[in-house]
Structures are given as C-alpha cells and as structure tokens.
User: What shape does this take?
Amino acid sequence: MDFDRAVPLIAAPMAGGASTPALVAAVNGAGGLGFLAAGYRDADGMRRQIARAREATDRPIGVNLFVPGPPAGPGAVAAYRERLLPEALGRGVELPAAIPPDRDDWDAKLDALLREPVDWLSYTFGLPGAAEAAAVRAAGIRQLGTVTSPEEARAATALGLDALVVQGPEAGGHRATHRAEDRPGTLPLLQLLAAVREVTPLPLVAAGGLGSGRPSPPRSPRARSPSSSAPRTCAPRSPGPRPRTAAPWSNWTPPPSPGPSPAARPAPCATPSPTATRAGPRRRTRRCTT
Assistant: This one.
C-alpha cells in the first residue's frame, strides 16, 4: 500500500453529510487522506461532491461506497412494519405496505467512478463482485475493504484488494458486517487487528475508538483542569455527618465593620463550619462562587 502521506491517518467517510469536500481538503492539507462518503447519495450527487473536492485540493482523495446486500425476507419486513405501526398511527404517518429493494444507486456510481476514477475507493457493508473489483483495479483505483472479522478479511484478500480497514467494536453506532444478519464480534480493536494479521498479508487500517499512538499516563485524581487552576475562595465542606455539639466559638461576635470603600473589592467568602451553622449565631452569609 503506497500511502505517501506525511500523517498516516484517513478521515473516515461519514455518510449523511458530515464528510464534506471542505473536510476532505482540510484533512489533505494537514497531511492525511480525505474521504468522501457516497452512501445515501445518487451517482450525480457523488459526482458533484468529487468535483468540489478536486477544486479544493490537488492531493489524492477517496470515495466510500455502501455495498448493496440481498433484500430482507418479506416476513422480517412485515414483522418490523407491525412493530412500527402503533407509533406511525399515533403520529399520523402511513407506512408503505412493501419496501422495494434499495441498491443505493450502486451500479450508476461504479460506472461513474470507472469513467472518472478517483485515487481510492473503499467498500462498507460488504464486498464488490470479482468482476467489479477487477474493473476498478483496471481503472487504476486502489481499493480498501472494511472488515470486522478474520473471515471477512480472508474474503477481501481473495478478492485482490489493496488494503483492509479493520473495524472494531469501539467504532460506535454501527458495525460494517458483510451481512445484515451477522452479529458483530466483541473482540477489542487491538486484538482484532492481531487476529486479522494472522490471516492476511495486506496492509491494515485500524478504525474505531482511536485516541493516540501511545497510552496516556494515568491522571492524578487531584489534578485540575486548566479552567480550575485559579485559587478557590470557598473551602469545601468536610465529609461525614455533622456533629450536633456546640462550637467553642458559638458566642463569638464579629468586630465592627470599618465601612465599605468605593475602590475596595469584596472580601472572599468563607463557608461556615458545619458546627457553627447549627449552634452559632444565625448570620446572613454571601453565596460562594468559584
């Protein structure tokens, strides 16, 4: 995998609008590889996004496609519709009696990319057919396959892809299993990378739950955030139950005030002792803020 980047990071393609051409250009400018998300777009929308990205950056870009799977069985769709029906009726929404197959404009997108190739093409929720992968390869496009298990990694390797995106359970809201009915694995990302490495020689891209290349040192429980570095003016209350005995200074009388000065700042407030609040003289105190 010829990843000629100053920063070995890929901006994950996020369908639904987050992966904009501006984001692709920004990632490229920072030294990484920007990716557009073609999922939920038709072929014309994908072409417009590619054109805008190429206007914003002269570096290589990538595009991600959702691989269409076989349609779900009619029984499962009907059962799901029945579960949604009370909610839909309560909101005045009419559910369709049947849902036609949705291939996310797959064929038109592939045709557009073969005629106007991009540098990288990645696949999510499955793999292309052997003839489709061969045509993409012949067009000079490098291919990434998203995998969530060693079995999926074997299939992607046999297809002749250039690299694999290994997606662990830390990836978030969904996992890109190759079949909708497959239950995603729970092997943590680092262990999944090791398991996939045993079955394929292809370069691997880690995806999901990334932080930094080195483990962070444990944070001291006494450490303060930068916003709390200023000294506090109020002492915290002592933990534990409040004693019910009178304090030795319960009859203490404050000295007379010299009177406020126009230029003087108010004195820091102090939290009264728990014992003084019960047995001492009742005095109005100012609310403390930090």
User: Anything to note?
Assistant: The helical segments are 21-29, 43-56, 74-90, 106-115, 130-138, 150-158, 189-197, 274-279. The radius of gyration is 31 Å. Strands lie at 35-37, 62-66, 120-124, 142-147, 163-167, 204-207. The chain is about 30% helix and 10% strand.
